[in-house]
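quick q for whoever's on today - can somebody do inverse folding on this one?? i tried earlier but teh output was garbage lol. tokens:
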């Protein structure tokens, strides 16, 4: 069996991955708060942990991996959005949940085994809060319930900070009902127009952190294998999850391996509304950037390094993918190459796996170009290439189609035919030559016969080279 190693934020080193139960490998990843379209940065953990999900399924078997990713559908940002738009909360959360699934599906992300919505687990959250109060880790005050951070010795261990450092460094909310400024909300009161549920502390709603502790407990048990998310969640969200779960279930591990992906930038700068470089996955898809291209660009950078999204990277990814899709056309996948598998098993080194795919693709292309490659078993190399790409969620059937759709050359075929007809009379072939040269340099094969003009995109076809011709 392939041995997987993963960098564990908790221990700050790469460790051999040993699941608690290889028959049921369990992973929890924090999901979105549903009130708006997912921006590009939100998609990075989805794609990263999708590759890990695919790798685990490959190694342990598709029926032996349980992946949970939640939807936060009760939150002050959602309430604010509902007030702004005058729409019911349920309508907003249902709509944005659907958007999220569509956009992430367009990036080739498999649906997790369970996608719990927070509002369906309020009873479990209340029960967990009651346990925390009973064990002396939480207290009710002024309609709120707060977690008593000083009652948990290991608070801060994940991010490697002491409680005093955190108070000094963080903007903590000082409220009269808190015993300590770091104490965080497990439950808070709701006004009549805010969503609320009856509880022993009055009508109210849960804090954000408790939902992940309650839902992971319900769906994965008190101890499970992997917990993932963006590194912006390490503190306070994940520290708080650990505090809640470990205090409610003493002796359990909660999650054994903590994985965090780095953030995404755009053209070298932090994505922000004020810089005007803020866009959603849906915006990119609408602009005609294929989901597979976005996925490819993401996977070219290791998940623990900052990912810089650039238009140039997207363009390059499109050219490479078009070539790969031409090579993979009509090929049945066999088993992934050991080299690709080894890269992925080494702390999800997707960049290394992609380099290996490039190497395989180049070999196949040289062979197609007639290069003499002694001992090259082309049939098995083809099958391995496609299977390896699919392990990364690339060259799949679901993501196919764009390479045909955007290589619609009929307007240019028409244009070249007309120019040729005209040149027959004027005997001036300069326009025909100009069009032909531009097509050829963009990787299009130009076939002219008595029957007309035919344009065939070659493996190096780069549609951006044709922009000025249309
Ligand atoms: Zn969470």
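ok took a stab at it. sequence:
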């Amino acid at each position: 069996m392939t041995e997987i190693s993963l960098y564990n934020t908790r221990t700050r080193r790469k460790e051999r991955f040993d699941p608690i139960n290889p028959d049921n490998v369990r992973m929890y990843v924090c999901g979105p708060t549903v009130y708006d379209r997912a921006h590009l940065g939100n998609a990075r953990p989805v794609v990263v942990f999708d590759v890990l999900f695919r790798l685990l399924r490959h190694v342990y078997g598709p029926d032996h991996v349980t992946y949970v990713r939640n939807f936060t559908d009760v939150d002050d940002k959602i309430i604010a959005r509902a007030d702004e738009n005058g729409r019911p909360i349920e309508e907003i959360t249902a709509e944005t949940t659907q958007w999220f699934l569509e956009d992430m599906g367009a990036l080739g992300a498999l649906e997790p085994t369970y996608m719990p919505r927070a509002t369906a687990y309020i009873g479990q959250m209340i029960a967990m809060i009651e346990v925390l109060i009973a064990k002396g880790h939480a207290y009710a005050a002024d309609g709120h319930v707060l977690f008593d951070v000083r009652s948990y010795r290991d608070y801060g261990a994940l991010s490697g900070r002491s409680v005093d450092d955190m108070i000094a460094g963080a903007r903590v909310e000082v409220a009269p009902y808190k015993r300590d400024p770091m104490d965080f909300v497990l439950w808070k009161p709701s006004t009549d127009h805010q969503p609320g549920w009856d509880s022993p502390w009055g009508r109210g709603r849960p804090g954000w952190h408790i939902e992940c502790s309650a839902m992971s407990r319900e769906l994965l048990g008190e101890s499970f294998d992997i917990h993932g998310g963006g590194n912006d969640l390490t503190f306070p969200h994940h520290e708080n999850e650990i505090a809640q779960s470990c205090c409610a279930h003493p002796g359990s591990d909660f999650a054994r391996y903590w994985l965090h992906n780095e953030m995404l930038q755009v053209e070298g700068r932090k994505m922000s509304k004020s810089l005007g470089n803020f866009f959603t996955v849906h915006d990119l898809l609408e602009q005609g950037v294929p989901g597979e291209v976005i996925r490819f660009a993401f996977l070219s950078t290791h998940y623990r390094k900052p990912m810089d999204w650039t238009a140039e990277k997207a363009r390059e990814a499109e050219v490479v993918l078009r070539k790969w899709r031409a090579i993979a056309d009509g090929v049945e996948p066999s088993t992934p190459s050991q080299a690709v598998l080894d890269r992925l098993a080494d702390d999800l080194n997707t960049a290394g796996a992609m380099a290996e795919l490039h190497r395989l693709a180049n070999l196949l292309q040289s062979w197609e170009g007639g290069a003499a490659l002694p001992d090259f078993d082309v049939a098995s190399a083809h099958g391995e290439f496609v299977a390896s790409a699919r392990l990364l969620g690339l060259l799949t059937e679901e993501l196919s189609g764009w390479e045909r759709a955007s290589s619609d050359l009929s307007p240019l075929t028409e244009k070249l035919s007309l120019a040729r007809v005209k040149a027959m009379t004027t005997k001036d072939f300069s326009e025909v030559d100009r069009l032909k040269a531009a097509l050829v340099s963009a990787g299009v094969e130009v076939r002219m016969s008595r029957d007309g003009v035919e344009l065939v995109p070659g493996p190096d076809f780069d549609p951006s080279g044709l922009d000025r011709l249309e």
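fwiw The pocket of zinc ion is lined by residues 30, 212, 237, 241 (CB under 6 Å). also The chain has a mean pLDDT of 93. so keep that in mind when u check it
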